[in-house]
Amino acid sequence: MSAITMRELTKVYPGGVRALDALDLEIADGEFFALLGPSGCGKTTLLRTIAGLEVASAGSVRIGGRDVTNLPPGKRDVAMVFQDYALFPHMTVRDNIAYPLRIKKVDRRSRGSKAADTADELGLSGLLERRPGQLSGGQQQRVALARAMACHPQVFLLDEPLSNLDARLRLEARTFLKRLQRELGVTTVFVTHDQAEALALADRIAVMEGGRIRQVGTPTEVFRRPANTFVAGFIGSTPMNLIDARVHGDELAVAGARLPLPDGAPGQVSDGERLVYGIRPEYLDYSPTAVPGALTGEVVVVENLGSVSLVSLDVPGDHAGASDEAGAGDDSGAGRTSVQVVVPEGGEPEPGDTGW
Ligand code: ADP
Ligand code: MG
């Protein structure tokens, strides 16, 4: 068993930065778990604290039921792959992979054969005598993975392992990583700032902001039912539209339009209540001719995304912003807000057009 449990985990760096703020999180045995969030939100700190490379200021970490909060990294049975791979430049691929076995005092012969076996599994057999400088980025990444795998740890910790690869190689490595994790079944915590990567790879995702977890769920849950406007704005290939709205009986008044209340909302909201209406650009339709009751506005920008275009319209109403805590703005409704719509090929308007 190698579930990971964090309780009120806090890390305050010297100088006072609170990188982890009483964070609670449970990662199940065998899970491929993504930590997702903007730069500086504490992802690397959380990974390093699980690994024992940072000492927690308060709270606890358990791995497989064992309290490891005060154990050194070598006693935690975890392996970490760093963002820059951290390979030893003067060592061959074979010696790099075998290095953790040497630290564990495994004898030279079995070290060599274990390194060769792991290299074989990762398609590195032909490269054992090379040095990191003689490898491509993708190959270096595999060596870093092989080095982590050689000891058969209970837990893999991967810090943005794909971020140094170019776009095409990145997709290839992503598929490879997913297959490898399936085959090994090892509990894996994967850090990324790329929401598409997290959605594609993970069994579950934790979305972080400012040293805290804002939501934990499956890719479908965080995409379809974001728990707050931060998650809503962070997940998705285009940010969700967030517009100030007011409940009117069984309808929602949104920037001059009247919409039916979304599923699940009736009974949970009261007449006159102000709330934030969130809808993804993919789920809105664009019409060049008037549609009664629909949002209407002026087309400001049209961005070609390949098979579809992203159209930004300027509509009357207040932008709800990305903060839960901010006030809902004044009551005048005199502001302007930008609403984005995904429009299929052939139906794109021109800037300056009016659309519904
Ligand atoms: P992420 O990996 O999500 O980008 P980090 O965990 O690296 O975020 O950093 C979280 C916060 O802690 C940031 O504000 C960062 O500047 C700060 N931080 C990280 N490492 C240190 C350190 N060694 N000393 C002081 N502050 C640090
Ligand atoms: Mg980081």
Q: Describe it for me?
A:
This protein has 356 residues and is of the alpha+beta class. It has two domains: 4-234, 3-Layer(aba) Sandwich (Rossmann fold), CATH 3.40.50.300; 241-355, no CATH class. It is 24% helix and 31% strand. It has a six-stranded mixed sheet with strand order 6-7-8-3-9-10, with helices on both faces. Helix 2 crosses helix 3, helix 2 packs parallel to helix 4 (137-149) and helix 3 (108-121) crosses helix 4. The protein is elongated and about 80 Å long. Adenosine-5'-diphosphate binds next to helix 1.
Break the fold down into its secondary structure elements and pairings:
Elements (H helix, E strand, L loop, with lengths): L3 E9 L5 E10 L4 E5 L6 H9 L6 E6 L2 E2 L10 E4 L11 H11 L4 H14 L15 H13 L5 E5 L7 H18 L2 E6 L2 H7 L2 E6 L2 E6 L1 H6 L4 H6 L6 E8 L2 E4 L2 E4 L13 E6 L17 E8 L3 E9 L19 E9 L9 E2 L1
Bound molecules: adenosine-5'-diphosphate (ADP) and magnesium ion.
Provide tags for this entry.
24% helix, single chain, elongated, binds magnesium ion, 356 residues, 18 strands, 2 domains, Rossmann fold, 4-stranded antiparallel beta sheet, binds adenosine-5'-diphosphate, 6-stranded mixed beta sheet, alpha+beta
